């Protein structure tokens, strides 16, 4: 009922109260997730090699004409952008309460200046605690003849698989083979810092700064800013909050795509008791998109990015709302009472039938274990569905309904006072009855004129509401979520439609009673009520699926998109598998691997990646927590409804690794 409590300034029985009762008796609302934990459940921690992992993008790409995209027009489609986030003011107390965990320096290494040689040896010692020398030698052999781009493929695959130690091992081998390349040093530093070796990370970053070579721009992200983020993260791992803040303030201004820097800045501020700023930057870091309320518009209720920025709702269903029969004159009020009674009975039957299956739908949806990203994706669709009513245009329509309903209330109140005055006038007999019938006829015309305005506005709202609900639902690949939301959507539509019926019925009954009291003749009407039938919502229809892209990172990871689904299929062979048996402790941190093309790269016969295009994966010690793809807004990656696939590897690819602190841990 939350969505209706503010609709009417003057609650009254015929419409508002009965509408509330209808909502209470039907499955009119399901809980909206106030916060979505980034910490995966135990189910998400299963070995990535054991099963295919599915993750979901929040934005559908529309097929466009192929060709070179305009310079600089790229779109980063991120899973995390669809997250529902509480306002910063609500987050602040939670962050402050957890400072005892996030800001403790107990167990952190002491700041120590290391040479690169010392840091390299310490990193090797760390790895040798996890894998044997022969395993490391095997990986050296495996990577010996690979180019930097091919090794970048391996590193990305290892991060996607949750095997960050394998990624670190590959980067150490790369550093040895290509000592003058800064990006492998930067990437290794990110993994070292995340693994509890921040002093070593700083030594690697210092070495990168002395190469004098360009850092590159994996996925279009400035490599130098990536290095600064990893440097700041190392300072956080040493408890040097102020040093980290000083670095990160520049990074967040220079590189808006680097959400990791915003998250790290939040921690640096929190641990210096700058609580309000920490809450703001935490919120900004949870999403990849740096949402600007000035340029991009306000969030819905300060919690969700407007739905049109996140989902393709073009599959929303438009339907003709059944007409509600009404009398044309007060003489017909009596014959309409059984019509409305029949409609009430039909509504009751619909409620009972819908409520009978609702518990089973909820149980089926809840009683299963899904990977963290998949469950979060479904929760995001659920939340977007719930927030349809908070879209600005929907709220404006409800305000119009509220205003019209209040105007109707004033008319009915005036009519009541007029009848009271008439009966208190002293008139009796036929003169009173004639005056009464005349007054009721006038009141009927006045009341119905305003009622028709309210009815029209309400039905327009119902059409828009159903289109919005079903437009979001079309993005739900999961049949259980789809069926659950359809059940609740039907309840909401019933509530609005039969709310009008109940309002008309209540007023019609009063009119019939008053008309009979005034000795008015009854007139028969042959109208009947219509049945409320809703067109079924689509479920991932072809014209919503948009792009279908398949890409294989050499023979390590396969990534494909179809109907907002990225299927990440991780191979356990080719050098990663020896690391699987070990427990990887990222020390309450996350790492993100950005993987993109340096130039134009062909993928099979029909698809190509332009410079800066590619994807990223973010992982913590139990699995993937975010994923996204960056594409040109008008480029050849658009494949329409034709599925294509191919390999991504070779010298024209590059990877960047960013370290970030983890929030929402259970201490």
Task: Strand order, main sheet: write it out.
Answer: 1-5-4-3-11
What is the overall shape? elongated
> Strand count, sense and closure of the main sheet?
5 strands, mixed
Mean pLDDT: 78
What ranges have pLDDT less than 50 throughout 5 or more consecutive residues?
A: 1-72, 545-550, 570-586, 603-607, 633-647
- Counted beta strands: 12
Topology:
Layout: H1 13-25, E1 53-56, E2 74-78, H2 88-97, H3 99-102, H4 116-128, H5 133-143, H6 148-160, H7 164-177, H8 182-194, H9 198-209, H10 223-237, H11 241-254, H12 259-270, H13 275-286, H14 333-366, H15 372-386, H16 392-423, H17 429-473, H18 479-517, H19 542-545, E3 549-553, E4 557-562, E5 565-570, E6 589-597, E7 601-603, E8 607-609, E9 614-620, E10 623-632, E11 644-648, E12 653-661
Parallel strand pairs: 3-11
Antiparallel strand pairs: 1-5, 2-10, 3-4, 4-5, 6-9, 6-12, 7-8, 9-10
Helix pairs in contact: 1-18, 2-13, 4-7, 4-9, 5-7, 6-7, 7-8, 8-9, 8-10, 9-10, 10-11, 10-12, 11-12, 12-13, 14-18, 15-17, 16-17, 17-18
Structure keywords:
single chain, 667 residues, alpha+beta, Serine Threonine Protein Phosphatase 5, Tetratricopeptide repeat, 3 domains, five-stranded antiparallel sheet, disordered N terminus
Question: Can you walk me through this structure?
Answer:
With 667 residues, this protein is α+β, with helices and mostly antiparallel strands. It folds into 3 domains: 2-30 and 313-517, no CATH class; 43-83 and 544-661, no CATH class; 88-296, Serine Threonine Protein Phosphatase 5, Tetratricopeptide repeat. The chain has 19 helices and 12 strands. The strands form 3 sheets. Strands 1-5-4-3-11 form a 5-stranded mixed beta sheet. Strands 2-10-9-6-12 form a 5-stranded antiparallel beta sheet, sandwiched between helices. Strands 7-8 form a two-stranded antiparallel sheet. The longest helix has 45 residues, at 429-473.
């Amino acid at each position: 009922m939350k969505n209706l409590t503010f609709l009417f300034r003057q609650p009254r029985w015929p419409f508002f109260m009965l509408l509330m009762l209808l909502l209470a008796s039907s499955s009119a609302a399901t809980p909206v997730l106030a916060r979505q934990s980034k910490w995966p459940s135990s189910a998400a921690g299963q070995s990535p090699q054991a099963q295919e992992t599915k993750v979901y993008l929040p934005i559908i790409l529309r097929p466009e004409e192929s060709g070179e995209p305009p310079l600089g027009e790229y779109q980063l489609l991120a899973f995390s952008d669809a997250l529902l986030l509480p306002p910063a003011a609500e987050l602040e107390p939670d962050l402050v309460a957890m400072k005892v965990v996030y800001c403790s320096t107990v167990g952190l290494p002491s700041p120590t200046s290391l040479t690169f040689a010392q840091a390299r040896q310490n990193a090797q010692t760390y790895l040798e605690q996890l894998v044997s020398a022969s395993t490391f030698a095997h990986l050296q052999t495996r990577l010996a003849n690979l180019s930097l781009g091919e090794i970048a493929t391996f590193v990305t695959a290892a991060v996607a698989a949750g095997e960050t130690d394998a990624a670190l091992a590959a980067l150490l081998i790369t550093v040895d083979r290509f000592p003058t390349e800064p990006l492998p040093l930067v990437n290794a530093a990110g993994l070292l810092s995340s693994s509890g070796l921040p002093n070593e990370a700083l030594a690697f970053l210092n070495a990168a700064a002395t190469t004098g070579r360009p850092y590159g721009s994996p996925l279009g992200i400035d490599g130098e800013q990536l290095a600064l983020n990893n440097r700041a993260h190392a300072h956080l791992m040493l408890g040097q909050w102020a040093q980290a803040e000083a670095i990160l303030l520049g990074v967040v201004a220079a590189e808006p795509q680097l959400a990791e820097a915003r998250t790290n800045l939040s921690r640096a501020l929190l641990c210096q008791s700058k609580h309000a700023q920490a809450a703001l930057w935490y919120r900004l870091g949870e999403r990849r998109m740096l949402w600007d309320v000035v340029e991009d518009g306000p969030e819905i209720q300060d919690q969700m990015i407007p739905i049109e920025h996140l989902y393709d709702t073009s599959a929303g269903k438009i339907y003709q709302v059944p007409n509600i029969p009404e009398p044309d004159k007060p003489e017909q009020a009596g014959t309409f009472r059984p019509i409305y009674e029949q409609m009430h009975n039909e509504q009751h039957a619909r409620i009972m039938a819908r409520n009978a299956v609702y518990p089973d739908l909820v149980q089926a949806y809840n009683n299963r274990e899904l990977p963290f990203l998949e469950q979060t994706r479904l929760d995001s669709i659920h939340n977007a569905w719930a927030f349809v009513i908070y879209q600005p245009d929907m709220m404006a329509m409800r305000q119009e309904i509220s205003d019209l309903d209040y105007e109707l209330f004033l008319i009915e109140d005036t009519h009541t006072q007029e009848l009271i005055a008439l009966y208190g006038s002293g008139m009796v007999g036929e003169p009173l009855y004639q005056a009464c019938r005349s007054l009721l006829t006038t009141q009927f015309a006045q009341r119905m004129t305003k009622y028709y305005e309210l009815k029209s506005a309400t039905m327009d709202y119902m059409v828009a509401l159903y289109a919005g609900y079903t437009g979001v639902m079309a993005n739900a690949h999961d049949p259980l979520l789809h069926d659950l939301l359809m059940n609740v959507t039907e309840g909401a539509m019933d509530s609005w439609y039969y709310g009008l019926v109940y309002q008309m019925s209540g007023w019609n009954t009063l009119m019939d009673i008053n008309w009979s009291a005034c000795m008015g003749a009854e007139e028969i009407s042959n109208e009947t009520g219509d049945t409320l039938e809703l067109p079924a919502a689509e479920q991932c229809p072809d014209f919503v699926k948009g792009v279908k892209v398949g890409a294989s990172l050499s023979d390590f990871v396969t990534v494909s998109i179809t109907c907002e689904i990225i299927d990440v299929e991780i191979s356990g062979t080719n050098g990663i598998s020896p690391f699987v048996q070990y427990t990887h402790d990222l020390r309450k941190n996350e790492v993100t691997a950005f993987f993109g093309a340096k130039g134009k790269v062909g993928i099979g016969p029909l698809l190509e990646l332009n410079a800066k295009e590619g994807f990223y994966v973010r992982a913590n010690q139990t699995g993937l927590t975010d994923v996204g793809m960056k594409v040109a807004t008008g480029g050849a990656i658009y494949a329409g409804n034709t599925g294509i696939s191919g390999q991504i590897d070779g010298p024209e690819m590059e990877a960047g690794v960013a370290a970030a602190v983890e929030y929402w841990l259970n201490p």
